[in-house]
Amino acid sequence: MNNFIETVIEVKGLTKIFGKGCPSCVEGTGPDYNTNICPYCKSIVACSNISFKLFKSEILGIVGESGSGKSTLLKCLYLEQQPTDGEYYLNYYKEGKVNIFQLDSQEKRYIKNNLLGMVYQYPHLGLDMYISCGGNIAEKLINSGYISISKIRKRASELLNKTEIPLLRIDDFPKNFSGGMQQRVQIAKALSNNPPILFLDEITSGLDVSVQAKVLDLIKSIQQELKISMLIVSHDMSVIRMLADRTIVMKNGKIVEMGLTDQILEDPQHPYTQLLISSIL
Ligand SMILES: Nc1ncnc2c1ncn2[C@@H]1O[C@H](COP(=O)(O)OP(=O)(O)OP(=O)(O)O)[C@@H](O)[C@H]1O
């Protein structure tokens, strides 16, 4: 843990409620009640008072069953969704002294284009299937300030090389690629502007087991080489076991357990975590 001393993200009290909400939403939902639906106003409490830190160069896993609030949390952090409440600090932006959720849309766009990368579960969310693989990467590079065509092409080639996509496919459309290859193009695109932080949402769901293993290996080697901080969401404890240094376990919108992945695997404290782990043993 000594390597993980610098905090790159700090999240405090993040809550996202779908519906009109009421003062009892947060207290009336969660794993103790086995629901994320408020019994009083029937709103959905997707994320409930979530607080954690992401450290420099670590992979932090977020695991939980479908509906536990993982994707909503990631969407809030990638600034695609505005939370109902909470604070979000990035040490790469104004030395971590400004609550990112309170910024205007222009500043949020700057942060998305320069500091954050995202790899989605479904490649069509991260890629335009009808522009070339190189064109997809170029789009992101242009958004982050690249203007020289030759530099863009050079950077795109470097990224394809890093993500093990044959260079001769640079002008092909991602719609003609296999699922595993589409995920690798997404990873190349997400890395193109050298973001210090990368979010990954269920990136291996829907891939064959052998392809899953290759994508996970790629993520691991990229992280080791580039030392970027990653937040990886999965419902699959074996994905988290393979990648994450620390793990957050979520259920019904709340954190039930957080700690070193090895510790959580060896000595899970919460019954829900014990259940998740028994599923992979
Ligand atoms: N736009 C929305 N409007 C209403 N409810 C939503 C919306 N998005 C998510 N929810 C609800 O919020 C809760 C958390 O959903 P979320 O997608 O974050 O969970 P998850 O853990 O990522 O699960 P999955 O892996 O199935 O996506 C669920 O009950 C979901 O139905």
TrEMBL record:
<protein>
    <submittedName>
        <fullName>ATP-binding cassette domain-containing protein</fullName>
    </submittedName>
</protein>
<dbReference type="InterPro" id="IPR013563">
    <property type="entry name" value="Oligopep_ABC_C"/>
</dbReference>
<keyword id="KW-0813">Transport</keyword>
<keyword id="KW-0547">Nucleotide-binding</keyword>
<dbReference type="InterPro" id="IPR012700">
    <property type="entry name" value="PhnK"/>
</dbReference>
<dbReference type="Pfam" id="PF00005">
    <property type="entry name" value="ABC_tran"/>
</dbReference>
<dbReference type="GO" id="GO:0005524">
    <property type="term" value="F:ATP binding"/>
</dbReference>
<dbReference type="InterPro" id="IPR027417">
    <property type="entry name" value="P-loop_NTPase"/>
</dbReference>
<keyword id="KW-0067">ATP-binding</keyword>
<dbReference type="InterPro" id="IPR017871">
    <property type="entry name" value="ABC_transporter-like_CS"/>
</dbReference>
<dbReference type="Pfam" id="PF08352">
    <property type="entry name" value="oligo_HPY"/>
</dbReference>
<dbReference type="InterPro" id="IPR003439">
    <property type="entry name" value="ABC_transporter-like_ATP-bd"/>
</dbReference>
<dbReference type="InterPro" id="IPR003593">
    <property type="entry name" value="AAA+_ATPase"/>
</dbReference>
<feature type="domain" description="ABC transporter">
    <location>
        <begin position="32"/>
        <end position="277"/>
    </location>
</feature>
